[in-house]
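Recap from last week: sequence in, structure out.
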Amino acid sequence: MEKYYRKINELKEACGVFGIYGHREEVAQLTYYGLYALQHRGEESAGIAVADGKTVVVEKGMGLVSDVFSNKDKLLNLKGHIAIGHVRYSTTGASELVNAQPLLFRYRGGLLAVTHNGNLTNSKELRYKLERDGSIFQTTSDSEIIAHLVALSGKKELNNSLRLAVERIKGAYSFVLMNEKRLLGLRDPFGIRPLSLGKFNGCYILASETCAFDALGAEYVRDVLPGELVIINEDGFISEQLIPARGEKLCIFEFIYFARPDSQLMGKNVHMVRKELGKILAREHKLKADLVTGVPDSSMSTAPGVAEELGLPYETAFVKNRYIGRTFIQPDQSERSAGVRLKLNPINSLVEGKKVIMVDDSIVRGTTSLRIVDKLKKAGATEVYVLISSPRITHPCFYGIDTASKDLIGAKMDVPEITKTIGADYLGYLSQEGMLTATGLGRDCFCTACFDGCYPEEINFRKQKPLFGDRY
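Predicted structure tokens:
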């Protein structure tokens, strides 16, 4: 039984997927650019698989896209007209090469390459049943389960095999899959994780975010719908409602934190929604201060909204070391402290003698907020007011964000206690009503379970794998 332990200071992304059909000889290079645009969604591993109509070849490794494919010969060796790619942050399964995606399988129907964004909530139960019935797993990732279910379906057509497979799985998933001849995209019936369809020079593209289309100069066509299967082949694409949709429940943190500000989600620009989050946050907390600043990077769209609404100057008071990833996680306390020191550095002359409003997207454990507040005060800020552009996180997520109740400061403390813990002079959260209003979309369009415990589907808490401790 494998053991590993993770210390979390921040929310972590839920992986990025990409797929393209039709650009012979260039698909690997185009997928590389697409993954580069999606790098913020996962920094642990990256991989690309290419099909030429007869076979599938995979190249993958640990680290950033630029590290894995630093040797350009790897891309040149990936020849074909279909490709899928993946950048990974592990939520189920250790951060090891064996779990890096795309995962490639051979079964009686041929070859199947799989990439997955999300988390299956019944993976422990399914894996137990599959292993009991003779399946042999090659990874500790829940993404492998879909391949075993496809292989056991007994159906000749892949879409029919997938239909039987998804009838058995629960949770959040945006799958981009590929066999020797087709590219497929599949989204869960709630649409918890995003997936969009684009078009580039006559070929079709699938991606977690539209910023990947922009990187190629591609055209955004539409979002893949909840429960929809998109099949792309030489004749174009066809759509099939593989499983009945159960509403639209996009993870609200895609707007708050995960997605790049230049991406479009549900027809809304992420930057503009974040700016509106800031404006509403300022209306709910009418503070008097000397300046407003944001914590890079996701709050750099929200903080100007706060400043504009309060009529205060907005300043970039932190310089970020761009050579350190979006999340800096180390195994012990001293290394985590060093990580914060290396990642962000305040500009003393901007904050010295000032009352500073610091805007951030969320507080998970509180340790990062504590260190950033301390940095501002050591830089000379007389008072630090912390505004958070989301409600207090009080419940664990089982859909692809690595959080557990025992690590959530919002589940253990009230606002005054958190304020004291992080050393702030004031702490204000955005209300849930304000957050949903900022999107300009219906309040029923989002999963907000981490704030209110209202999960899209019934969760058997006893059967969830512990996020800190034993895994398969």
